[in-house]
C-alpha cells in the first residue's frame, strides 16, 4: 500500500518534466494507494525567482497563474481517476521570509488545500538546494557550516510555528551539498542539535508528519531525509513518519522506494502514517502498521 505526498511535474514546475496526468497514471500503474499533488506555491518578488524561471521570462504574476492552473488540472485528474487512486491536492510551500506565513494562509483559504508540505529552501533568502554555487553563497554569508545549520533550523522553526504543515518536507535539506561526514558531525554539535530537537518537539506537539524523502538518494546522500540520528530523535519523541518520493516527473514516481525496506528496518520503523479523506471529506491521518510485512515491497521489483 504505497503512498507519497510530495510531488511535482514539468507542466507546473520549471525543474520538473512531463505532464501532471502522466504522473498520476504512473502512480496508478505502480499500485499506489494515495498520491499527493503538491506543486510549488508561488513566490512573490522578482528577486525570489530561480535562474531557470528568469530564463523562461517568468514573473511573480505568472507563477500565481501557473499555480491556479495546477489546481484546476489537479482537480480534473482527481475526478478522472478517483476510482483507481486516492489523490490529494496541496502545495509545497516556501518560507523565504516571515511574510510567507500570510501567503500560505491565503493559499489555504483560496484553494482549500488538502494539506501543505512545509519546506525550507532558503537561508538568508538564498536558495540552498538549487546548485552547489548558491549553497556556497549562503555559506559565505555566515562564519561556518555550523552557523548555516543553526540559521536553517531557526528559520525552519519560524516556518513550522507559523504554518504548522501537515507534512514536513525534507527536514534536513541543509545536508544536500555539504560533505557527508562533515555534515553529520555538524548536525550533532550541541548548538545545532538542540535546534533539531526543538523543531521535532514542535512538529510532534501539533501532530505533523515527518516525510521520509527518498529523493536524497538521487543526490548521492547516504541517508534519506531525515538522516538516521534525526530519525532516532523523532522516534524517541513518538513522532510520526510518512513516505514521499519528491517526484519531479512520471519516471520519478516511487523513486528509490526499493531502498526503503532496508532503511526502515535499519532505523526500526515499523509504523507509518498517511493522509486520507474521512467520510465527511475532511483530511485525517491514518496509521499503517507492520509495514515491513506489506506485500507491496515485493511488487517493487516488477516496476
UniProtKB/TrEMBL annotation:
Q: Could you tell me which InterPro entries the record lists for this protein?
A: Histidinol_P_phosphatase_HisJ (IPR010140), PHP_dom (IPR004013), Pol/histidinol_Pase-like (IPR016195)
Of the GO CC terms on this record, one is: cytoplasm
What single Pfam family name could you report for this chain, choosing any that match? PHP
High-level lineage = Eukaryota, Fungi, Fungi incertae sedis, Mucoromycota, Mucoromycotina
Keyword field contains Hydrolase: yes
Pathway stated in the Swiss-Prot or TrEMBL entry = Amino-acid biosynthesis; L-histidine biosynthesis; L-histidine from 5-phospho-alpha-D-ribose 1-diphosphate: step 8/9
Could you list this entry's UniProt keywords, alphabetically sorted: Amino-acid biosynthesis, Histidine biosynthesis, Hydrolase
List the gene name.
Answer: PARPA_07946.1 scaffold 31073
Q: What is this protein called?
A: Histidinol-phosphatase
Q: What is its EC number?
A: 3.1.3.15
The family annotation for this protein states: Belongs to the PHP hydrolase family. HisK subfamily.
What general EC class does the enzyme of this chain belong to?
A: hydrolase
NCBIfam families from the UniProt entry: hisJ_fam
Molecular function in Gene Ontology: histidinol-phosphatase activity
Give the reaction(s) catalysed: L-histidinol phosphate + H2O = L-histidinol + phosphate
- At the top level, the lineage of the source is Eukaryota
Organism annotation = Parasitella parasitica
- Could you mention a single GO BP entry for this protein? L-histidine biosynthetic process
What range(s) does the PHP domain occupy?
5-214
